[in-house]
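[SOLVED] Need 3D model of a two-part complex

Original post:
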Amino acid sequence: MSSLYESRRQTNVIATMLAWGAALFGLSWLLLILGSLIYEGVRGLSLDVFTQTTPPPGSVGGLLNAIAGSLVMTVIGVLIGAPLGMLAGTYLAEYGRFTKLATVVRFINDILLSAPSIVIGLFVYEVMVHPMGHFSAISGAVALALLVVPVVLRTTEDMLLLVPGSMREAASALGAPRAMVISKVAYRAARAGLVTGVLLAIARVSGETAPLLFTALNNQFWSSDLNAPMASLPVVIFQFALSPYKDWQQLAWTGALLITITVLTLSIVARTFSAGRRK
Amino acid sequence: MADVLMSVSGAQTETRIARSRALARIAFIDVIFHAVTRFSAIAVLIILGGVIVSLIHGAQPAIKAFGFGFLSSQSWNPVTDNFGAMPAVYGTLITSLVAMVIAVPIGLGVATFLTELCPHVLRRPIGIAIELLAGIPSIIYGIWGLFVFAPFIQAYVQPPMIKMFTGVPVLSSLFAGPPYGIGMLTAGFILAIMILPFIASISRDVFETVPPMLKEAATGIGCTTWEMMRYVVLPYTRVGVVGGVMLALGRALGETMAVTFVIGNAHKISPSLFAPGTTISATIANEFTEAVGDIYTSSLIELGLILFFITFVVLSIARYLLMRIEQKSA
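Solution:
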C-alpha cells in the first residue's frame, strides 16, 4: 500500500516538475528572442533611421520610406477592411444571429483568420497586379485589408454579443427601429470592444510580410504614388536580412525592433481598452 | 391614439404627414442597413470563393502541363520548365511535424502550469505575456533564427549530434550531413517556438472550461495533480485540445517568414533533418517575383493552391472540434 502511494507521489512530482520545466523552457526562448532583438536593434537606432531613405549597400541611410510605406498601406488597408468587417460582424451578431448564413460565414471567417497570408498575396496578385500589369501600393493595401476583415469581424461579433439583450429590448420598446437600436445602443455599449478589434487588426497586419512580397513589392526610393511599388518595413527587413551587407543587416534588426515595439504597444493598448470595458 | 380621436385640423394633418414621412425614412434606413450588413457578411464568402477560383484559374497552365504528376514529381527546373510539388510538400509536412513534436508537449505543459501550478499572483502576468508573444510577427522569429539560432545550432548542436548518432541505424541518416545551421530541423524548431504561445494559450482556455466541481471531486477522492490532469481534465477537454493543436498545425503549415529565412531553399528531398529543404510558402516567397514565364508562375500558384487546400482541411477540422467544446461549455 505504501509503495503504491509512494509511486503515485513520485509520478506526480515528476509530472509537476515537467510542467514547471516546460513553462520555464517556453518563456526563456521567448525572452531570449526579445533580448537579442533589443540588443541588436538598439545598436542601430539613430535619427538617421527616421529621416533617411533606404541606402544602397555601403552608405548611410535609414528606413524612412519603408516606415512611411507601411503606415500608408496599413491605414488604407484598415480603412477598407475595418468597415467591411464591422458591418459583417454586425450582421452576425444582430440581424442574422441564428440564421444559416451567419453560421456559414462564422465558420469560413474563422478559417480565413488563420489561413496562410501568402495565399492572400497570391489572390491579390491574380486579381489586381496581373490585370494592372505592375506591382502597386494599392494592391498591397487591399491584401492587408483582406487580412483585417476576419479579425475585425470576429471581435465585432464577440463584443456585440456581450451587450445585454435587455438593452436592445428597452430601445425597441421605446419604438426605435432596428438600425437605430444597433447604431445608438449596441455600438455605443460595445464601443471599447470595437476599437479593440481594430487595434488588434492593425497589430496583425503591421508585421505581415508574405502578402506584400508580390503585391506592393519594394521600392528603394521615396514614393507616395499608390499606383507604383512601395517599400514597407517587413519587406525591407526581409530583403536586408538576407543580404550579405553588414549595414543592411543592421537596418533589418532595427526595423524588426520597430515593428515589435509597434505590435506590442498596440496589443497592450487594445488589452487595456477591453479590460476597461469588462469592469 | 389620442391624436387620432381628436378632430382633424389643418395643422395636425401637416404634422401627421411629416411624421409618416419621418417614419418612412427611418424604415428605409433600416432596410438599407440590414441589406448592407448582410452583403458584408456575404462578402466574406465571396472573398473565400474568389481566393479559390483565382488560384485555380492561375494554376491552369501548370495543371494542364503536368496533371496529377505535379504532386509526385520531384523535379524543379526553371530552365526546362519542369516542375513538381513533392519536395515543397514534403518540406512543409516535415517542418510542421518537427514543430508539433516539440511544441505540443511543451505547450500542454505550459497550459498545465498556468491552470494548476502557477502561483495566483503570476498567473495573469504570465498568461498575458504568452498572449502578447503569440502576436509577434513571424518575420521577427525568422530574422532571429537566421542570425542567432542557426549559427548557434551549427556550432554547438549539430556537430555533437552527428558524432553521437554515427553508426546508429535510422538516427544516423536522420541526423547526417555537414552542419549548415540552416535546414529542416532548424526551421521546425523556429516554427515550434512560434506556435508554442498559440498552443499554450488555447489549451489554457480549454482547460479552464472544466467545471471546478469535477476537479474538486477528483481531489476529494485523493487524486494527485497529475492524476487529476490525466484522468479528469484531459479526457474532458480532449476534443478542444485536439482542436487547438490542429489550429496551431494550420498556422505552422502556412507559415512563411519564420521558415523562409532558415530553410535553405533547396528543392530536394533529403532523409537528413540537417539538410536544407524548402516548404511551399518559402518557395513562393523566394521565387514568385523572379519567376519568368507562364508555366513557372502558374506552378507556384498551383503550389499555393495545394497549400490552401491542406490548411483549409486542417483548419476546418480544428474549428469543428473547437466548436464542439464551446457548445459543451455553454
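Edit: Chain B touches chain A through 92 residues (CB under 8 Å).
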